[in-house]
Structure formats: C-alpha cells, structure tokens
Amino acid sequence: MAKFHFSSCRFTNVFLYTVLLMIAIVTGTSLLKAQKAGTAANASDDTSLIDAFKHVEVASVSDAMEQVLGKKMYMTHRMQPIFTSKFAGFALTVRLKKDEGNNDPTALSGMLAAIDGGAANSVYVMSVEDGADIAGMGGLMGTAMAARGFSGAVIDGGVRDVGYLRKIGFPVFAVGIVPSTSVNHYRFAGSQVPIVCDGVTVSAGDIVVADADGVAVVPRAKADEVLALAQQMDFKEHSMYPYIEKMKSIEEAVKKFGRL
After folding, report:
1. Which one of 53, 98, 160, 195 has the fewest CB atoms closer than 10 angstroms to its CB?
2. What is residue 121's DSSP assignment?
C-alpha cells in the first residue's frame, strides 16, 4: 500500500508540474505576442502621425505652434531647399564642432554611425558650428540616408554634391551650397542630443516638417495637439480660396471663416 501511495503522489506531482509548465509557456507566449503587438501598434501610430504631418502645410503647423506653445518654432529665410520638396519625419540630431587642422581619421566617425543607425522616417538635423561655408553633408551621406528611408535632411551649414542629391531626389534644406569639406576642420560632438538649428531648439524625436514655405519643428509631446489645430487651419484656409473668388472679398472671407 505504501508503495502504491508513493507512486500516486509522484504521478500527481508530475501532473501538476506539467500543468504549471504549460500555463507558464502559454502565459509567456501571450505576453510576448502582446509585446510584439504593442511594438507594431507604436510603429503604426508613428507612421500614421508622420503621414498626417506630410499632408498639412508648414505655415499652418507654424501658426498652430504659436497658439499651442506661445513661441516661434520655425527656421529663418536662410534655410533653403536644394529643390522644391515637402517632407516630415522624426529628428535625428547631430552636432559638429570646429576643430581646425585635426588629422584624426575618426573625428567624424560618430556622424557616420548616426546615419547608419537611423530608421525610416528620420530627418537628419545637423548643427555645424560657424558652418555657413562648410558642407555638413554631400552626396555620399545623402545616398546612405535615402537607402535607409530617411525623409530628408536639414543642415545648419552648407551642403554640396547637390547635382547628385537632386538626381536621386533626396531633399535637403541648408543655409548655403558650398564645395568645401568638414574633414580636418570639424569633429563630431554628439548625436541624438538637443541642438540649435538655425535658431530653433531641436531634440531627438521631435517632428520636423518642411515644404516650399520653410522648416518648422514640433516638440514630440505636443505633436497630436499641434497636428489637430494645423489640420483645422488648413481646412479653413482651403475653404476660403473659392469663397474669396466668389465674393471677391477677403474681408468677407475672414469674417466668415476667422482665418488669415
């Protein structure tokens, strides 16, 4: 009887262990699936957000931010496109500091690593210290960005190889077109850190929008609120065009729609 009792207990323990193991496996699998689903949902939300910003005008985004944030978040007239373009994406920030005459072959390695680590829908935003006459990027860097699915680049400095960049259709805004190089003149000073680009503070992950009117930067935490207001402004303005043509009066249109 004792022997039989021992075997029964042993069977019971094995059975319970098996059940618990199966529960753990199922639970772990469910959690993993939920985690993956959450990651996919976040990626989908990010893509949808960027797509929405691509369909609003930068002027409306700029106006919306003045209302939401109470300050200007657009770059100056100095920031010009190498060809007419419109894009939006998440800021990937890079800073270069002057280091004249350096012969360090690794001085700019971090700049290249930042590009190779960038994801689709990134906007390469670079601050080049006193860099109006220094090309912060050119055709090679632009090719790498395009291959990785970057939306575009905004350079507080110069850009070169514009013929090739135009050929591949990679959009760049910069403060000038120059043939110079940053090699031996500059050193990488950080990536994915807050920078000031043409007077605007840009943090990693902020949303950068650009079109024929210029460049604006939306803090990530305020993106949804700014987008909603910018969409309303766009709708009003686009509704006003035919109304003005019909009434032949901008005063009447502003009175009716409350937008200027």
Report:
1. 98
2. T
C-alpha 156/C-alpha 138 separation (Å) is 14
Core vs surface per residue 202-237: b (16+ CB within 10 A) or e: bbbbbbbbbbeebbbbbbeebbeebbebbbebbebb
Tokens of 121: 């829908």
Residues 152 and 189 in one domain: yes
Note whether 90 and 204 are same-domain residues: yes
Contact (Cβ atoms closer than 8 angstroms) between residue 178 and residue 124: no
User: What's this model's pTM, rounded to 2 decimal places?
Assistant: 0.81
Burial of 14 (0-12, 13-18, 19+ CB in 10 A): exposed
For residues 86 and 166, membership in a common domain is answered with: yes
User: What is the pLDDT tens value at each position of the chain, 260 positions in all?
Assistant: 444 444 454 545 544 445 444 544 444 444 444 344 444 445 569 999 999 999 999 999 999 999 999 999 999 999 999 999 999 999 999 999 999 999 999 999 999 999 999 999 999 999 999 999 999 999 999 999 999 999 999 999 999 999 999 999 999 999 999 999 999 999 999 999 999 999 999 999 999 999 999 999 999 999 999 999 999 999 998 899 998 999 888 888 898 887 77
Q: Is 169 inside a domain boundary?
A: yes
| Residue-number span of the structural domain to which 27 is assigned | 1-54
Residue 90: both structure tokens together: 């998440």
